[in-house]
């Protein structure tokens, strides 16, 4: 089971993956409304806190949740420079961000995060940030894309560490996943890889450039 909590003024998606057989769970991108997220997580045996990238609207409640649940926090080390970076004046205050701790473990391309019947493979997808990653579960056919791929759009590349050329390569990686793969993005509605391949103007535009 997957629950998506849309939190904070930027309507960021905090994603909870749950094994209903064991009541184990992990949470991805706890960005705002920490008490609300914690109340939901208290129903389960939390195993991990994950981040797709280091922007505060995705890691702003990691410190808060670590104090309550004392479980490992995992992210890509290339985004460590962002985890307490305001980016915009007053951004941390706007979303009620807590100081984010360094990860207990850094994860990279090809690593897997496993619990219960879930096995999430790490796919490095730089472009929005240098350390952006996605979490892909081949068996259960879903991918958590953070701010790399949205329904009908992609993450912006004009913030610190953003790179459009890297984003194009990352989108190519994601488009190699099966059409039926559910896409759970960091903002907005869910979609499918096949739908984005056919209708996302950024994807079709890159396709016309002959990148795949």
UniProtKB/TrEMBL annotation:
The keyword RNA-binding does not apply. Pfam families: Lactamase_B. InterPro entries: MBL_Glyoxalase_II, Metallo-B-lactamas, RibonucZ/Hydroxyglut_hydro. GO terms for molecular function: hydrolase activity; metal ion binding. Its cofactor is Zn(2+). Residues 11-187 form the Metallo-beta-lactamase domain. Keywords: Hydrolase, Metal-binding, Zinc. It comes from the Bacteria. The keyword Mitochondrion does not apply. This is Glyoxylase, beta-lactamase superfamily II. It comes from Persephonella hydrogeniphila.
């Amino acid at each position: 089971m997957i629950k998506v909590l849309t939190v904070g003024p930027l309507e960021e998606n905090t994603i909870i993956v749950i094994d209903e057989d064991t009541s184990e769970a992990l949470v991805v991108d706890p960005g705002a409304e920490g008490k609300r997220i914690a109340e939901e997580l208290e129903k389960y045996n939390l195993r991990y806190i994950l981040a797709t990238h280091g922007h505060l609207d995705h890691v702003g409640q990691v410190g808060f949740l670590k104090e309550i649940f004392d479980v490992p926090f995992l992210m890509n080390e290339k985004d460590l420079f962002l985890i307490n970076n305001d980016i915009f004046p007053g951004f941390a205050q706007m979303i009620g961000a807590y100081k984010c701790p360094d990860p207990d473990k850094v994860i990279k391309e090809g690593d897997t995060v496993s619990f219960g019947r879930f096995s999430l493979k790490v796919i490095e997808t730089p472009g929005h940030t240098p350390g952006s990653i996605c979490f892909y579960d081949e068996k259960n056919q879903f991918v958590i894309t953070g701010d790399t791929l949205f329904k009908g759009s992609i993450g912006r590349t004009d913030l610190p560490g953003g790179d459009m050329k890297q984003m194009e390569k990352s989108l190519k990686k994601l488009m190699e996943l099966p059409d039926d793969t559910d896409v759970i993005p960091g903002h907005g509605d869910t979609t499918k890889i096949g739908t984005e391949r056919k209708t996302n103007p950024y994807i079709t535009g890159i396709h016309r450039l002959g990148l795949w």
